[in-house]
Amino acid sequence: MQANSSSASEAKAVGTKIVTIGIVAIVLILGLAGAFLLFTLPDANAFNARVERLFVENDDLTSAAEIKLLEILAQSGTAFSEVLASYRLVIFVLMLFATGLLVACLVFVVTIVLLNRRIGAIERQGIQVSSLAINRDEKVVVLNDMEFSLTGAAIETLSVLAEARMDGDVLSGAEIEAMISGRDASECEEASGATRIKRLRDALGNQMVAELLIKTVARQGYVLAIDQNAIEMR
Length: 234
Known about the structure:
The chain is α+β, with helices and mostly antiparallel strands.
């Protein structure tokens, strides 16, 4: 248990470190990219400066049409500067959104990787069951702190597996069917017991828990993958 706890702590620490480094890298990269875009945009007053220069260098433009043209140019320069200002605002907002999305993606990816590692560790080590209480009368099974209400058939199947586990036995599908139906194992089909196991796993609901709790032993049968002393029959 200490090894499992230490492994989980190390995985969590590594995940936190990766997320921190990733966030810093994302912020730096997008910050530099945003700064480059903002500083490479032309000066908002560049057009106005050119128009002002036209006014200064062309004092002979005195006709109404020429003055009107210069006024239009000046207004165009003002509009151009406003457009550039809006571009800068749009780039800033887009950079904020991009940073948020990339950070969220990084967190999700790291979370998925850590969950996959934990699931892999569980698959390798099996589910840790400290207690399994079966109440046939109430058709209830308490697995650690999880309570399951099962059908009568599922309770009988689980009870047979529990009794076999306490005796250190592995039951085939035919033997399971024989113990439940009261017939001889030679008269029962392997598929009938396998069907009961499938229904029990479905009744437990959580596929991962069910698959790890009820182990399939190749060419032998089925067995509960828990400690014998953790089983309690009522």
